[in-house]
Specification:
It is a single chain. The protein has 112 residues and is of the alpha+beta class. The chain has one domain. The protein contains five helices and six strands, in the order βααββααβββα. The strands form three sheets. A two-stranded antiparallel ribbon has the order 1-4. It has a two-stranded antiparallel ribbon with strand order 2-3. Strand 5 and strand 6 form a beta hairpin. Helix 2 packs across helix 4. The longest helix is centred in the middle third of the chain and has 15 residues. The model has no long low-confidence stretch (mean pLDDT 87).
Length: 112
């Protein structure tokens, strides 16, 4: 089960920052997953549909883009879908929710 976002502005800033802290490989995969996701009859992203060829093309393209461009694209898609896990702790970073980030500051940054 998934929920819609309903968090403070600070939580959104933290989630966006957490996306930017992810590894290069993670960013490339999430970027490509947005392009591979199907669209349902209402024009909404369908996390249950996946185009393998589109994924491969997008993954190749992602390898040529800087990290900040990948993170910005992922964040834009995340905001549009505005979905999080049950309980609202983690924002979905891909259409199916298998990649997430916390709405809280990452632990490594929160500790001195």
């Amino acid at each position: 089960m998934a929920w819609s976002w309903s968090h403070s502005q600070e939580a959104y800033y933290d989630a966006r920052d957490n996306v930017g802290q992810k590894s290069r490989e993670w960013l490339e995969v999430c970027y490509a997953e947005w392009f591979a996701a199907g669209v349902d009859d209402c024009g909404c992203i369908d996390g249950n549909s996946f185009d393998e060829e589109e994924y491969s093309r997008a993954l190749e393209n992602a390898r040529e883009l800087p990290d900040d461009v990948l993170a910005d694209h992922i964040w834009d898609q995340m905001q549009e879908m505005a979905t999080c896990d049950n309980g609202g702790w983690n924002a979905w970073c891909c259409p199916s929710g298998c990649h997430t980030v916390s709405f809280s500051p990452e632990e490594s940054k929160a500790t001195p």
